Amino acid sequence: MAHTLVIVESPTKARTIRGFLPKAFRVEASMGHVRDLPNNASEIPAAHKGQKWANLGVNTEADFEPLYVVPKDKKKLVKELKDALKGADQLLLATDEDREGESISWHLLQLLAPKIPVKRMVFHEITKEAIGRALDQTRELDMELVHAQETRRILDRLVGYTLSPLLWKKVAWGLSAGRVQSVAVRLLVQRERARRAFRSGSYWDLKAALEKAGTRFEAKLTHLEGQRIATGNDFDESTGGLKDGSKVRLLSEDEARNLSAAVESAGWSVTAVEEKPTVRRPVPPFTTSTLQQESNRKLRLSARETMRCAQGLYERGFITYMRTDSVHLSDQAISAARSCVESRYGKEYLSKSVRQFSTKSRNAQEAHEAIRPAGESFRAPQDTGLDGRDLALYELIWKRTVASQMAEARLTMLSVDLSAADAVFRASGKRIDFPGFFRAYVEGSDDPDAALEGQEVLLPSLSVGDAPSLKDVEALGHQTQPPARFSEASLVKMLEKEGIGRPSTYASIIGTIVDRGYATLLNNSLTPSFTAFAVTSLLEAHFPDLVDPGFTARMENTLDEISHGTVQWLPYLEEFYKGDQGLESQVHQREGDIDPGASRTIDLEGLPCVVRIGRFGAYLESKRVGEDGEEELIKATLPREITPADLDHDQAELILKQKADGPEALGEDPETGDLVYLLFGQYGPYVQRGQVSDENPKPKRASLPKGVKPEDLSLDDALGLLRLPRLLGEHPDGGKVQAGLGRFGPYVVWDKGKGEKDYRSLKGDDDVLAVGLTRALELLAMPKRGRGGRTALKDLGIPEGSEETIQVYDGPYGLYVKQGKVNASLPEGKGAEDITLEEAVELLAAKASTKKSSSRNSAAAKKPAAKKPAAKKPAAKKPAAKKPPATTKSGRLRASAVRVIRPGDS
């Protein structure tokens, strides 16, 4: 029976859409891209191996023809899609309605080569109504969008594959450069340089607690003898002193304390009262960028986690498409939002007229809607059946959309000046006269009710001439703070403001920066590494355009113009890559001029040495004169926890001195008589009992727990760490409970016997040297979390013949299944809800066999004599024996996989 074949990206999306289509429709998933440029040499077809351009994947000598291949893990899927196409009388390509989705549809069309009518089916939400409209409004493939996406893909490949090998030679193996990635890294480095150059200033002021009619309020010193008191904004960040020309008074500690005593005995009176009404209007609904920012601020989700979660909500029909630059809402959405406001909050909270927003993004993409709850009526968060981060993100989107159609909040800003002796103090307050949209959504807060209370700072009724009573006055010292490091939210905001990259790619960009070791994410701050400093310096010196935000933004504009058909893609690539000023020539000309030694050296001001990048990370290098009068070179590993902005002269001196002279002992262990040392290694400071010798090649060592400063470490603390693990007592169910310090920090463990152990990490307030049995039992009773504090998303169960359960986790590199010590990543497009126990068993078995294979290869590599006769002959015979059937069966796959097609070819 003939059917209509519909192809989408993921199984989740397929399952949702299937419920809205007639039985004559068959829905299949492409699992993302079905083909791409080759990722490594093994994917290059035999016909192209040895050709200079093959590794690049783009033939720059033949009109930038891309070499598209079907990856090994997609060949079975492609065959299944071709089989599904047999018997179909129509093909609907229903991939996402954006450039990448258009490109996936084009690749499917080229690869499947259907002989039946093909239409493009697009929608921005997965509801019955939307799917019905999409079926009635199919269109042709938009080749201008394809041109733009393919040009972007080729451009990114040219930049990455041309510059990355240069970084391997000149800085360190395994590094990568990217058209947008390198600019983002430079932004992090520039902020870290500003932190390093920052000089802190100090200033003092007074804070008074007063009371009127039983109500207490606070006031801060603003003027003394008619002169304004200095605040943090008055200081020069480069000197730590007041800015030139500042006409403010800088109080010293003594002056502040003397003034505190003077105003304590003086009379206080109100000299001015001001009330200023103001209005706050709701912010627009979410775009991709603002959703990533607010999710990071409120929910502490990374950009990658936010997009993965939003993708799942979209594919299950809860929200509209999550890749959009538009803040526009459809009439249907506005009606649904206004209905929610009226039913939940009352008519007085509804905006008087429909509120519509306009997009201000520099590179706004296709005319999608803003991200909002799907459908003609919005499901209330508590009615969705969602939980965890899915519920939290949906609720965030629901609140922001609903708030956009609510009335303005009306507030009154209050300001009161008070005088005491020659000093003037100011008390500021805020009164909410009508909360309006605050009832649903307050930016930066995930609890509007609590936020409303926090928004108000109420003052008692005060009039000029009133004399409130002083309850307390305090002199306060302050230090100016360096510029804050970028969080994911603030980096996304900066990238969007500068017009760098696409918001839909920010998650992968930030993920790559962290994965490649260019930055670490700690306490929601992105801290660049010393390697990031070295790479950025090299690119600034030799390829300044590629790390210039303005240049990158102009490239984005050109790519947008290509998508609109106003710029031709091929001449643009020719100009960018070829010719005397093209990237290829620049790299070739400058490669010989770049000194690897200089590229691996970071000269930071104020240090008694230089920082270099080595095979195992950053290290310090300095020359000193030894006891024999000869100059010697000292190299000392730099602990990973030390950041570029925080490395100072004293730290560097201490690390170099310890390396040159050996460590100073903290004292003697009374039990063994060995000296106990404090040392610095690649992974931070640690303590060691005794020194390395032939008799004691591996002395006992213990890392310092997080938060313990080396300078505060006592001998007793060091001995306690060296004696870990320590016995806490017996578990009520049998077995002993211990506290220890491991690779991932302090922990408690229940040893159940027969090799079975149950671990729990200690929390922030727990001290591994002081934790007791009662607290340990509390922790052991809590649900077990995965590495990095991750909780299993789904328990798939215990396979037959096994004793361990298989669970699904969300890790820094995506979703994965875990059984015991074996992890296996989920294929692209597979979600936690899609994976079955049987599929998970196959993935884990494949991963386990890969590990065994690599172990055998490693063992074989160590025994070359045994390797020669056994490995080569069977490998040569095997394909020869199967050649006839393989040629027929896979030849077609190979031909379609390797077919070279340019955007626009038919």
Helix content: 25-40%
Number of E strands: 31
The description of the largest β-sheet is: 7 strands, antiparallel
Principal-axis shape: globular
As a whole number of angstroms, the C-alpha radius of gyration is 32 Å
Which secondary-structure class do the elements indicate? Answer: alpha+beta
Give the count of helical stretches: 25
What integer is the average pLDDT? 86
Proportion of residues in extended strands? 15-25%
The low-pLDDT segments are 860-906
The end-to-end span amounts to 30 Å
Task: Describe the model.
The chain is α+β, with helices and mostly antiparallel strands and 906 residues long. Strand 5, helix 3 and strand 6 form a beta-alpha-beta unit. It is globular. The C terminus is likely disordered.
Give the tags.
single chain, 906 residues, alpha+beta, four-stranded parallel β-sheet
Compact description:
The chain is of the alpha+beta class and 906 residues long. Helix content is 36%, strand content 21%. Helix 8 packs antiparallel against helix 13 (488-498), helix 9 packs across helix 11 (388-403) and helix 9 (303-315) packs across helix 14.
